[in-house]
Amino acid sequence: MNARKIGRIVAAVGAATLVLASCGSDDTTSSDTSTSTGDTSESLSVSDAWARSTPEDAERTAIYLTVESHEDDTIIGASVPGDIAAEAELHEPATEGMDEGMDDEHGGGAITMRAVDQIPVAKGTTTLEPGGYHLMLMGLVEPLIDGETFDLTLDLEHGSPLSVTVTVRSG
């Protein structure tokens, strides 16, 4: 294996580590933090909405939450105030090869995330969690500090937008 190939692998592993740090596990505390502007509150509620606190130079962080739904629905968009972040994206995990010809047994698969147009919400409980579906805040305006809260709006395929209070936690 030549030095350039090793350098690319080391760089890819380092990048994957940074991505996964924002998607790592953390324990949650339960609290319902959703309000609706329409009939959605009858069929859907959100609890345990939290975002990871960030260091001074961070440009992004993830939001996790739990959805309780009496019927199938789909999250088709999300937004936060402009003084929090430039945008909120819907994300899912994906496995991608780090280098052609390598396989997972030899470290070739890297878990990354990718933006998606929607997140399915099944009847019952759907959890947006580290390592799974989540929301990603891009273009953070300022660091998110442990204990702060901010508003998140979830746009749903069926029903009115859902307003959620997100609590910032260290993770």
Could you walk me through the main structural features you see in this protein, from its secondary elements to its overall organization?
The protein has helices spanning 3-21, 40-43, and strands at 34-36, 44-52, 60-69, 73-79, 85-97, 109-116, 119-121, 124-128, 134-140, 149-156, 162-169. It is globular and about 40 Å long. It contains two helices and eleven strands. With 171 residues, the chain is mostly beta strands. Strands 1, 2, 3, 4, 5, 6, 7, 8, 9, 10 and 11 form an eleven-stranded mixed β-sheet that branches.
Keywords:
single chain; mainly beta; eleven-stranded mixed beta sheet; 2 helices; 11 strands
Compile the SSE list and pairings.
Blueprint: H1 3-21, E1 34-36, H2 40-43, E2 44-52, E3 60-69, E4 73-79, E5 85-97, E6 109-116, E7 119-121, E8 124-128, E9 134-140, E10 149-156, E11 162-169
Parallel strand pairs: 2-11
Antiparallel strand pairs: 1-11, 2-3, 3-8, 3-9, 4-7, 4-10, 5-6, 5-9, 10-11
In short:
The protein is mainly beta and 171 residues long.
Element order, helices and strands?
HEHEEEEEEEEEE
Average residue pLDDT: 79
Largest sheet: 11 strands, mixed
Strand content: over 45%
Span between N and C termini?
Answer: 37 Å
Please bin the fraction of helical residues. 10-25%
